[in-house]
Design goal:
Layout: E1 4-8, E2 19-22, E3 31-32, E4 47-53, H1 64-74, E5 75-86, H2 91-94, H3 118-121, E6 126-128, E7 134-135, E8 140-147
Parallel strand pairs: 1-2, 1-4, 2-3, 4-5
Antiparallel strand pairs: 5-8, 6-8, 7-8
Length: about 160
């Protein structure tokens, strides 16, 4: 089976050429499922690209690591996860009463074993793509993560300040 492109939390705005998953049964949604209910109804290693645009800020903080680990489970090695979220404290973050989880540029370091913060929770490993995260002038934060293999030792990797 060829890996799919998945638009998580797509609502009524699914990306062209993607499979859409949302908790609401809207036009264009292919999989109706609550993102905070694990596991998702998808096979291991079935996605090449996952887009989560303006989704992570809606996830309960207690599910943040499980969300990233579930994305890792369904992603092929080398696949990419693209996340866009309003910067915590920005007008875009506070405008929506359902926003409950602020992700800053440092948050993503908890998922990349080349950063010291990874050792705190030791989730499934991702690599932050070079040049990311990017803060946009409109107050959004964008990051691309790449699924990497689980290893016992990441010591040979470049350490960051």
């Amino acid at each position: 089976m060829n890996p799919i492109k998945l638009d998580l939390g797509c609502g009524g705005n699914k990306q062209k050429g993607f499979t859409g998953m949302d908790m609401r049964d809207l036009p264009g949604v292919d999989i109706v499922h609550d993102i905070e209910k694990f596991p998702w109804p998808l096979h291991d290693d079935c996605c090449m690209i996952i887009v989560a645009s303006h989704l992570v800020e809606h996830i309960s903080p207690k599910h943040s690591i499980a969300f990233m680990d579930e994305c890792w489970r369904i992603m092929v090695i080398g696949g990419t996860l693209a996340i866009a979220t309003p910067y915590p404290g920005s007008v875009g973050y506070w405008q929506d009463p359902t926003h409950q989880n602020g992700w800053s540029q440092i948050t993503f370091q908890y998922f990349d074993p080349t950063y010291p913060l990874f050792s705190i929770y030791q989730p499934m490993p991702w690599r932050i793509k070079k040049g990311f995260p990017v803060w946009q002038q409109n107050g959004n934060l964008e990051v691309i993560m790449e699924k990497i293999e689980v290893r016992d030792n990441y010591e040979e990797e470049v350490k960051h300040d």
